[in-house]
């Protein structure tokens, strides 16, 4: 992928230069062309949103995941537009259950469940000039994967050179907790679906082509996605 998360995979990483983590580290935010603007707080806790999930439910779904190798903190759901909360929706398609469909124009990722239904996740996607479309498949999967910046990125951003041999997995790693590596015709495309801990990026085009889901959503999708799963990326 050429994500600005960029991570050419030298066997380790997706092409991602993502949005923000901690100051002082080679943060995803330093790789972004711009950052998404945080959205305002929602109203009273427990009030149902137009999409059917209450704020209280969202806080539970996107709560902390302490049992992970690197414990994942709760999402600040006030930074996520309520329409991007995970939910089950009607989605008519001829694709088989289990197929992943990315709709970059609407900032959604769908997992087809069958019977005209799908699980829908909010996403960040490629920025202008870095979007792509077509069919692919999950060639491999990774948990807390090592991220290796591609040489092209190092040329543009010399500060990335310190990770030329790979950035170990962790909360500040651009690939996050889970990664699905997308392949075509037996070759890695350099594009991934990855986990982001930057809620303000959901619903924006900030990468060099990769697709990011909130960590809690990405874990849910990852656990239900075997290698060889078909992935359809729609035109933006």
What does this structure look like?
The chain is mainly beta. It has a single domain (32-143, 179-233), classed as L,D-transpeptidase catalytic domain-like, CATH 2.40.440. It is 9% helix and 26% strand. It has three helices and eleven strands. The protein has helices spanning 55-61, 151-156, 215-223; strands at residues 87-90, 100-103, 108-114, 117-122, 125-126, 134-143, 178-184, 187-196, 205-207, 211-214, 230-233. The protein has a nine-stranded mixed sheet with strand order 1-4-3-2-11-6-7-8-10. Strand 2 (100-103) and strand 3 form a beta hairpin. The longest helix has 9 residues, at 215-223. Belongs to the YkuD family. InterPro entries: LD-transpeptidase, LD_TPept_cat_dom, TAT_signal, TAT_signal_bac_arc, Transpep_catalytic_dom.
Unreliable stretches, pLDDT < 50, 5 or more residues? Answer: 1-51
Strand content: 25-35%
How would you sum up the major sheet?
9 strands, mixed
CATH architecture: Beta Barrel
Instruction: Please work out how many helical segments DSSP would assign.
Output: 3
Secondary structure: number of strands: 11
Measure the end-to-end span: 16 Å
What's the arrangement of strands in the largest beta sheet? 1-4-3-2-11-6-7-8-10
Report the average pLDDT across residues.
82
By CATH's scheme, which homologous superfamily applies? L,D-transpeptidase catalytic domain-like
Q: How many domain modules?
A: 1
User: What is the general shape?
Assistant: globular
């Amino acid at each position: 992928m050429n994500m600005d998360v960029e991570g050419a995979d030298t066997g380790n990483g997706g092409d991602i230069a993502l949005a923000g983590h901690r100051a002082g580290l080679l943060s995803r935010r330093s790789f972004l062309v711009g950052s998404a603007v945080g959205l305002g707080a929602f109203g009273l806790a427990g009030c149902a949103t137009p999409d059917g999930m209450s704020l209280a439910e969202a806080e539970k779904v996107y709560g902390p995941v302490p049992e992970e190798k690197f414990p994942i903190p709760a999402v600040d759901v006030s930074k996520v537009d309520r329409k991007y909360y995970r939910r089950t929706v009607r989605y008519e398609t001829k694709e088989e259950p289990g197929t992943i469909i990315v709709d970059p124009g609407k900032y959604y990722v769908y997992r087809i469940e069958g019977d005209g239904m799908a699980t829908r996740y909010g996403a960040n996607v490629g920025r202008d000039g870095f979007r792509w479309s077509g069919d692919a498949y999950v060639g491999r999967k990774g948990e807390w994967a090592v991220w290796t910046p591609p040489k092209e990125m190092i040329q543009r951003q010399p500060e990335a050179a310190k990770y030329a041999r790979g950035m170990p997995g962790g909360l500040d790693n651009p690939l996050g907790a889970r990664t699905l590596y997308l392949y075509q015709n037996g070759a890695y495309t350099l594009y991934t679906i990855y986990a982001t801990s930057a809620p303000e990026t959901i619903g924006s085009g900030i990468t060099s082509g990769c697709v990011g889901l909130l960590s809690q959503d990405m874990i849910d999708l990852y656990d239900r996605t075997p290698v060889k799963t078909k992935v359809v990326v729609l035109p933006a």
